[in-house]
Amino acid sequence: LVKAGDVELNPGPRDKRAASDPLSEEDHRWLFQKIKKVSAKWRDVGEALEFSYDQLEAIASKGSLKTDEHYMQELLSRWLKRAPPKHPLPCVEDLATALRSV
Protein backbone atom coordinates (compact mmCIF):
# COMPACT_ATOMS: atom_id res chain seq x y z
CA LEU A 1 0.00 0.00 0.00
CA VAL A 2 2.82 2.41 0.81
CA LYS A 3 4.40 1.87 -2.62
CA ALA A 4 1.04 2.37 -4.30
CA GLY A 5 0.61 5.67 -2.47
CA ASP A 6 -2.58 4.61 -0.70
CA VAL A 7 -1.13 5.15 2.77
CA GLU A 8 0.30 8.33 4.23
CA LEU A 9 3.73 7.81 5.76
CA ASN A 10 3.02 10.17 8.66
CA PRO A 11 -0.66 11.05 8.70
CA GLY A 12 -0.74 12.76 12.11
CA PRO A 13 -3.95 14.20 13.46
CA ARG A 14 -6.45 15.44 10.93
CA ASP A 15 -7.98 18.01 13.24
CA LYS A 16 -5.54 20.79 14.13
CA ARG A 17 -7.40 21.50 17.38
CA ALA A 18 -7.01 17.89 18.45
CA ALA A 19 -3.24 18.12 18.07
CA SER A 20 -2.89 21.15 20.33
CA ASP A 21 -5.84 20.76 22.72
CA PRO A 22 -5.81 17.82 25.14
CA LEU A 23 -9.45 18.42 26.12
CA SER A 24 -12.49 16.83 24.60
CA GLU A 25 -15.60 18.82 23.78
CA GLU A 26 -17.23 17.34 26.89
CA ASP A 27 -14.28 18.49 29.04
CA HIS A 28 -14.61 22.02 27.66
CA ARG A 29 -18.32 22.07 28.48
CA TRP A 30 -17.74 20.77 32.00
CA LEU A 31 -15.02 23.36 32.70
CA PHE A 32 -17.12 26.22 31.33
CA GLN A 33 -20.22 25.22 33.32
CA LYS A 34 -18.26 24.64 36.51
CA ILE A 35 -16.41 27.96 36.21
CA LYS A 36 -19.68 29.78 35.68
CA LYS A 37 -21.30 27.96 38.61
CA VAL A 38 -18.51 28.73 41.10
CA SER A 39 -17.74 32.31 40.07
CA ALA A 40 -19.05 33.55 43.43
CA LYS A 41 -16.33 31.44 45.06
CA TRP A 42 -13.50 32.85 42.96
CA ARG A 43 -11.34 33.38 46.06
CA ASP A 44 -11.65 29.70 47.01
CA VAL A 45 -10.68 28.71 43.48
CA GLY A 46 -7.72 31.10 43.71
CA GLU A 47 -6.57 29.52 46.96
CA ALA A 48 -6.88 26.06 45.42
CA LEU A 49 -4.72 27.30 42.52
CA GLU A 50 -2.14 28.47 45.10
CA PHE A 51 -2.67 32.21 44.79
CA SER A 52 -1.44 34.09 47.83
CA TYR A 53 -3.68 36.29 49.95
CA ASP A 54 -1.96 39.38 48.51
CA GLN A 55 -2.52 38.20 44.94
CA LEU A 56 -6.22 37.66 45.63
CA GLU A 57 -6.47 41.06 47.30
CA ALA A 58 -4.87 42.65 44.22
CA ILE A 59 -7.62 41.13 42.09
CA ALA A 60 -10.31 42.17 44.59
CA SER A 61 -9.06 45.74 44.64
CA LYS A 62 -9.50 46.22 40.90
CA GLY A 63 -12.24 48.81 40.74
CA SER A 64 -13.20 48.05 37.15
CA LEU A 65 -14.44 44.54 37.96
CA LYS A 66 -18.14 44.57 38.78
CA THR A 67 -19.28 40.97 39.14
CA ASP A 68 -17.97 37.69 40.50
CA GLU A 69 -17.71 36.41 36.93
CA HIS A 70 -15.35 39.30 36.14
CA TYR A 71 -13.24 38.45 39.19
CA MET A 72 -13.13 34.81 38.12
CA GLN A 73 -12.07 35.83 34.60
CA GLU A 74 -9.28 37.98 36.01
CA LEU A 75 -8.17 35.16 38.31
CA LEU A 76 -8.07 32.63 35.47
CA SER A 77 -6.31 35.12 33.20
CA ARG A 78 -3.54 35.59 35.77
CA TRP A 79 -3.39 31.85 36.41
CA LEU A 80 -2.96 31.11 32.70
CA LYS A 81 -0.10 33.61 32.46
CA ARG A 82 1.85 31.69 35.07
CA ALA A 83 0.97 28.21 33.76
CA PRO A 84 3.73 26.44 31.83
CA PRO A 85 2.80 26.84 28.14
CA LYS A 86 4.44 23.65 26.87
CA HIS A 87 2.50 21.36 29.20
CA PRO A 88 -1.20 22.32 29.07
CA LEU A 89 -2.64 19.04 30.33
CA PRO A 90 -1.26 19.23 33.89
CA CYS A 91 -2.49 22.81 34.06
CA VAL A 92 -5.98 21.78 33.04
CA GLU A 93 -5.89 18.99 35.59
CA ASP A 94 -4.88 21.51 38.27
CA LEU A 95 -7.81 23.73 37.28
CA ALA A 96 -10.25 20.82 37.29
CA THR A 97 -9.01 19.77 40.74
CA ALA A 98 -9.40 23.31 42.05
CA LEU A 99 -12.92 23.56 40.65
CA ARG A 100 -13.92 20.21 42.16
CA SER A 101 -12.65 21.32 45.58
CA VAL A 102 -15.02 24.31 45.69
Q: What is the rounded Rg?
A: 19 Å
- Show unreliable segments: 14-19
Helix content: 55-70%
| Structure classification | mainly alpha
Give a count of the beta strands, DSSP E runs of length 2 or more: 0
* Binned strand content: under 5%
Q: How many individual helices?
A: 6
Mean pLDDT: 76
- General form: globular
Overall description:
The relative contact order is 0.15. Helix 3 (42-48) packs parallel to helix 5 (68-82) and helix 3 (42-48) packs across helix 6 (88-101). The longest helix has 15 residues, at 68-82. The protein has helices at 16-20, 25-37, 42-48, 53-60, 68-82, 88-101. It contains 6 helices and no strands. It is mainly α and 102 residues long. Residues 14-19 have low confidence and may be disordered.
